């Protein structure tokens, strides 16, 4: 029986609901989990198959701050599959469990019967402190924290916390002419992500066993940041893709499912203790290359790319392009070598996964808005 | 661990463009964008900071190892090494550094330079510094590869490095002679320019290469002929004694307070390695032949740098400010190949061909080097993109080698 679910988003646009597959497990639940389990096997855990994850003595009482929007949706499933008790701390604006595209009814039923909810506003420190203290979690995954002050009550509430795993951002790195960014590189205390930096510092100062993950651009089905969606809208509309400046700016995308696996890999892992890890895709890609990769993923013809000088335009408050106009990529070698983690998805594969499970089914988070494109194209038509 | 790291790392001058922005955050904002010699390896192999991979803050730092002073290798065995060296171009410098490093490690070295000792080419660096090889105990001879059997009649070597040929025609005489005379290990300086262009850098060993590239033929032949062989694919090489003085182009302008004109956006990424780092890699291959055997190694640093970044690095090395001016060569009617020392990628972009950013990264083994930037040698065609070096880990027994980035 198909179930209709719609994702609520704070942006209040109504989105088409997505209908659900009744097919068997998506890659995410199947083969791709295997490699992670093999890793766990080294730690002495039994592995009885891709779906049955042993609930060994290392089963934890885990709290995820957030968990209903993007990363957490995938991460929480992996954790539940591994036999942990998982609670999501959210305001309850979005349903705690929503069936994923490609997720079987049975898997979803299993997940939704096990996932727990702690309803509250994390900005209410007193509530956070008392409610967490009452539950006594072993491990906290902070997926949606932005400021250090939001983390304080969590730390204070859980003096016996075994591990605090934080979703930071590669956006903390100071812009550089020398790339890729490595974990040891200089960070920018003035960046838009300085709250993440301050959180990392705060964690370090508390003496808690923390791990920080710095993703670059995350993509995949259910992405609420219009990364691939931006390109898909234009490709679908048959429109040219306006890319600022040369188009050789180099960036890097990491699939959300690979990121979720990285979050699992650091759980209870001594090698992750008080360490920072960049997590993203294996390869980098230019803006022009990304446009072409999205086209391949969606089965579109090779797009027409228009380069323009953003300084020649006034877009008002609108963003004409979803990426920072600079090189931005990080080395994932530390995670690969220290944790034995590596991304499963290559770029076109990952974009195809996103397309097939999301945009290609008619779902997306933001309606297409070509107004800035038209400003650019209008001018190019005039000057051509 | 990370805290220990940041306090033990040395060299304030290693800070590149972030020195003024240092936040006082613990642990993960050390003042150095760098990596450092692996301490355990340094003691046993005395490697200078190599251009290897993946900085890992969990390894502790050591001071840079001086290039000229070297403890005997823990591997023990001394080898008799022949370097067949080109007599011009960006790769010339490789043989020079390799010879010196091997000699420093106690190996026996002969360097056969193509051509004649009296030729005008020998008046240029590094050849005009060959006395340094001789005084370190090395032997310098001249000749042509097809005549190698006569030039080195009666001699046998354990290891041969061909740092000359760009195709099988040039290398075969050397390879065949080496095989006949019982050379155990054959090494070859190939080129990173042979990778097929990609939209998704970095190139790793194993990525598709151009079938037509001469170097590919050599690599295949080596694999067929020798049981122990290795190929090294560098991108741009720099180092004092460079035959092609491309960094001089930047210095000439910087020291005269002239703007540095860079074609295009200046964002083009490229990769530069110091010849000393490549020579460390080669020396390790000699000292750990089993680990090297059968492998192709990208010989580049783990960071790419933009062309603008290169100009800034030159300025920093010179201790002077720099003014960069970007221009469109086509619009001005200038041939960028003549106007700029690196192959200009900008023009490719407007072709339907894929953009091929050229990656260049800068590594340096000690402070305030006046470095030479190698103009891309002719084999390095414009299609290279950023490289990574997965296989070098084999050398390091599972520990990541570290690289030093200092000015």
TrEMBL record, chain A:
GO terms for molecular function: UDP-glucose 4-epimerase activity. Coiled coil: none annotated. It comes from the Eukaryota. Residues 62-279 form the NAD-dependent epimerase/dehydratase domain. GO terms for cellular component: cytosol. One of its GO terms (biological process) is monosaccharide metabolic process. InterPro entries: Epimerase_deHydtase, NAD(P)-bd_dom_sf. This is NAD-dependent epimerase/dehydratase domain-containing protein. It comes from Linum tenue.
From TrEMBL, chain B:
Signal peptide: none annotated. One of its GO terms (cellular component) is cytosol. Residues 89-298 form the NAD-dependent epimerase/dehydratase domain. GO terms for biological process: monosaccharide metabolic process. One of its GO terms (molecular function) is UDP-glucose 4-epimerase activity. It comes from the Eukaryota. This is NAD-dependent epimerase/dehydratase domain-containing protein.
